[in-house]
Amino acid sequence: MAVYTEVTDDALAAFLERYEIGRVVAFRGIAEGVENSNYSLRTTEGDFILTLYEKRVDPVELPWFLGLMEHLAAQSLPCPLPVRAQDGANLNPLAGRIAAITTFLPGIWPRRPTAAHCGPLGAALARLHEAGTGYAAERANALGPHGWRPLLDRCGESADRVQPGWGVELAAALDRILAAWPEDLPRGQIHADLFPDNVFFLDGAISGLIDFYFAATDYFAYDIAVCLNAWCFEADLTFNITKSRALLRGYQSIRPLAATETAALPVLCQGAAIRFLLTRLYDWINTPDGALVTRKDPMPYYRRLRFHAQTRSASDYGL
Amino acid sequence: MAVYTEVTDDALAAFLERYEIGRVVAFRGIAEGVENSNYSLRTTEGDFILTLYEKRVDPVELPWFLGLMEHLAAQSLPCPLPVRAQDGANLNPLAGRIAAITTFLPGIWPRRPTAAHCGPLGAALARLHEAGTGYAAERANALGPHGWRPLLDRCGESADRVQPGWGVELAAALDRILAAWPEDLPRGQIHADLFPDNVFFLDGAISGLIDFYFAATDYFAYDIAVCLNAWCFEADLTFNITKSRALLRGYQSIRPLAATETAALPVLCQGAAIRFLLTRLYDWINTPDGALVTRKDPMPYYRRLRFHAQTRSASDYGL
Fold first, then answer.
1. CA distance B194 to B214
2. Complex ipTM, two decimals?
């Protein structure tokens, strides 16, 4: 799924001449990551990941993402460190794309997250939020609350073709969410997409946080809400409060939540659910039938949205 | 493209307990290989490839393939060595599939093969043929000449829907090829699918031959014909005799061809071309429109077939 751009040996060799990381020993496409092309690159000096940025990523935004990763890595967060070429550039052209080399992180992402994963995850998320405070440049969250209405509008009448009644129902849900959206919560750099496949574990501890290409400047507690959606529902889409409690406790062991943040959890979780519902719905409608990408079903996020719509307070999340 | 079966952390850990290769350090899906699911597996003891055999591979045939790889590796051929579990088994169940661990081979497969690749390739192919002689068990080549007529018959009238006239034309071509098919050429274990993505190079030398799951017992020179088709045509489908000459010279530097083999090259090359034409045609017809696999266009092999149909002797291949 994740090699859209082929790199010839000659092009790779020429690209690597810009860097001081030795000669190529192995180079294999990685079947993970949906947005970009990723290769596992081994050189005589170590292991790296080579990423070619595909069309969904705006090249203008790349320096912000790579700057954030560099900043977080410098704060000892286990995230990929962009490798700079001899001239200092961490972004260089390759095979008609912009490409970057980052350090390799050990670990495995959990295919079946358990409560034992959720505590370390929460703590790592809080560390990420704290580590990001010194990174001054801001990036508006294009997929935050201001982006949801335009996204639903662009789905238009097709929403009802995916699921009868969704057009009206999602518009009403969005009205309620945006009307209740909190103001002035603590904010900073958030990951905004910290799903299990972006978190590596080794011997029970977190060894890597990857894929910062949805990162933005937004409410910290919204990032928690994304994780509650991504980590705390079972395969049958029931909510697991044990996982949620572990995640929130792990988070607060590093960064205690303000009362305004805990109070906002139900609506933030609804917002996070509708964000993934809407992007999946949009992709579902706009992916041609024969396309070589996996369309993700929006329905599981509708089910999550319905769960969050009936929660009353942070206690429903185990706090 | 190449992760069809997901492996949970728990299942992987339980599977690895059968082996003595240390603890997992990293585990990533590889976006290469069309038939099976492949993972890059790093443990505290080294690097390995984990393969889960998908539906196209008959489990009954796996011991033959793995036995061949073990035999070839013991002859110092740079092919993956299946790792045996503590009980001696090199095939074990994982995630509802049969799986094997093999050693990791360094190198990069050439995205744009040049004549400089073709000499070492030819020599490696000859070494493979010689190394296989001590492996006594035979495997009939299901995709050899006896398999082509049934394959075309199963395409039936759909061939004409892919390309008008193909039904009659391919049947006639197949008649000619089978009528001229040589008897009693030197035979043994052949790779039968040695395309560029199955051959790793490092510093100009071959560092790995992989993917033996089409290997069979058949004419050595037919294996050469497969390589001439796979390596010696340009992107515009013109034949490059410089590459062909390099490949044949490389081969003969290890194993000189008999006169019967060189005389048969034109028809063997036609056979190899129609073999890939027919499997691609069959897959083209039988792949549902929305399927998540890349359908390979049969047309380039029709073009190759037409080239080979007008060659007269081995001199047309640079000998």
1. 9
2. 0.81
Residues A90-139 have pLDDT tens digits of 999 999 999 999 999 999 999 999 999 999 999 999 999 999 999 999 99
B68 three-class SS: helix
Do residues A217 and A243 share a domain?
yes
B2 is a domain residue = no
User: Using beta carbons and an 8 Å cutoff, which residues of B are at the interface with A?
Assistant: 1-3, 6-10, 12, 23-32, 40, 42, 104, 106-108, 110-112, 200-203, 289-290, 292, 294
Q: Which pLDDT score, from 0 to 100, does residue B18 have?
A: 96
Assigned domain for A46 exists = yes
Residue A81 belongs to domain spanning? 9-103
Q: Which CATH number fits the domain that encloses residue A86?
A: 3.30.200.20
Residue A245 domain flag: yes
Question: Where among A55, A81, A103 does a domain terminate?
Answer: A103
Residues B8-53 have pLDDT tens digits of 888 999 999 999 999 999 999 998 766 789 999 999 999 999 999 9
Q: How far apart are the first and last CA of chain A?
A: 38
The rounded distance, in Å, linking the Cα atoms of A37 and A31 is 9
State whether B9 and A290 contact (CB < 8 Å).
no
Pair of tokens at residue B267:
């028809």
Map tokens 């009954």 to a residue.
Answer: B60
